[in-house]
Specification:
By secondary structure, this protein is an all-beta fold. It contains no helices and five strands. The protein has strands at 4-6, 12-16, 21-33, 45-53, 59-63. The chain has a five-stranded antiparallel beta sheet with strand order 1-2-3-4-5, with no helix packed on it. β2 and β3 (21-33) form a beta hairpin. The protein is elongated and about 45 Å long. It starts with a strand and ends with a strand.
Length: 67
C-alpha cells in the first residue's frame, strides 16, 4: 500500500506508478466479489481500498483485510 498525504487544497496525494510521481487520487472503499462461482459469491465479498489517479486514471486496489 502506498503512503498518502494531503495537498494544500485537501486532495489525497499518492505515488502513481504510471505517472512516476505523486499525484492527486480519488480514494474509496468498495465491496468486491472474489468468487466467479454464483453459489459462492455471497460468501466471497471483501472490502478493497481503491485509489484512482486523477491525472491518468490508473487504479490501485488493495484488499483491506490483507493491508
Amino acid at each position: 500500500m502506498s503512503v498518502n498525504t494531503r495537498s494544500d487544497d485537501g486532495d489525497m496525494v499518492e505515488q502513481c506508478a504510471t505517472c512516476s510521481r505523486e499525484t492527486a487520487h480519488q480514494v474509496s472503499v468498495e465491496i468486491r466479489t472474489e468468487s466467479t462461482k454464483a453459489e459462492n459469491a455471497e460468501f466471497s465479498r471483501e472490502p478493497y481500498r481503491v485509489a484512482t489517479c486523477v491525472v491518468c486514471g490508473d487504479e490501485d486496489a488493495v484488499r483491506m483485510n490483507n493491508a
